[in-house]
UniProtKB/TrEMBL annotation:
<dbReference type="GO" id="GO:0052689">
    <property type="term" value="F:carboxylic ester hydrolase activity"/>
</dbReference>
<dbReference type="Pfam" id="PF00561">
    <property type="entry name" value="Abhydrolase_1"/>
</dbReference>
<dbReference type="InterPro" id="IPR000073">
    <property type="entry name" value="AB_hydrolase_1"/>
</dbReference>
<protein>
    <recommendedName>
        <fullName>AB hydrolase-1 domain-containing protein</fullName>
    </recommendedName>
</protein>
<dbReference type="GO" id="GO:0005739">
    <property type="term" value="C:mitochondrion"/>
</dbReference>
<comment type="similarity">
    <text>Belongs to the AB hydrolase superfamily.</text>
</comment>
<feature type="domain" description="AB hydrolase-1">
    <location>
        <begin position="60"/>
        <end position="299"/>
    </location>
</feature>
<keyword id="KW-0378">Hydrolase</keyword>
<dbReference type="InterPro" id="IPR029058">
    <property type="entry name" value="AB_hydrolase_fold"/>
</dbReference>
Amino acid sequence: MLGITSLRCAFQRTTGPLPLNAHRFMAAVSTTATKSVSTVPLAYDLHVPAKPVSDEKTSPIIVMHGLFGSKKNNRTISKVLARDLGRYVYTVDLRNHGDSPHDPRHDYPSMAADVAEFIRQHDLKEPTLLGHSMGAKTAMALALQEPDLVANLVAVDNAPVDARLASDFARYIQAMKEIEQAGVTRQADADKILEPYEKNVTIRQFLLGNLYRPQPPEGDGKTQRFRVPLNILGKALDHMGDFPFKNPDETRYAKPSLFIRGTRSKYVPDEVLPVIGQFFPMFEVVDIDAGHWVISENPEAFRQAVIRFLEPKD
């Protein structure tokens, strides 16, 4: 079982209403508003299954990364899911990350609106939302905001509750600003600056994966900078642990939902399971032997959990 334990839950409320090729694209430019939120076009990769069970618009999977991540972090697992399920997989860059545009507003309502607009622009039918950490809360927010737009949900190591964001992220912002101020040209020099802030080399490599060399006129082609807007994300940290929906009596997502948590992570403790059940009454929980970075730490257990949830039922 590769360290997987599963729990099926159905909480009832008593009140309230009831080898693959990746093709890179940029969604058409849009400044439309979804539910009064101005949206940005999301950059994405499309992973094409060798033996598709449907076309690219029907039942695709949309994969969303966490804070400081990008679509490239989910490239491998997306190819695997496309292969095993025969479904097209879109991996997106959320706003202020990767190749997607920067915007002063960075919160879950705006990120959810971006993904909703992405679904509409591409005329996607009954997509699965799969998100890790920040991407998980974005997926949950969209499912609750527009349940008819989403067929099912996979939330990886996050919960629909307000929680204090780990202090590590503020330190990372400080270190990344120091790297930019130093005008480094080699990643090894950036790593030396980052090391006192983070001892884990895997996390350092993850953060430094955001470095690039801007070409003229934005840069000199040698000095490295971060793709993510550090000032915008630094200001957003105070509410990145929040969840925009507070009252499960006012809204819920009554379709299948899978919550995957790492057994060595503190993001989804047992005491929040009743809250998950109130917002997502048709949810399952799968525990995987991993920390917060579930997908990269235990990819095979993660793959098995997602396949079991999404494969057609007899």
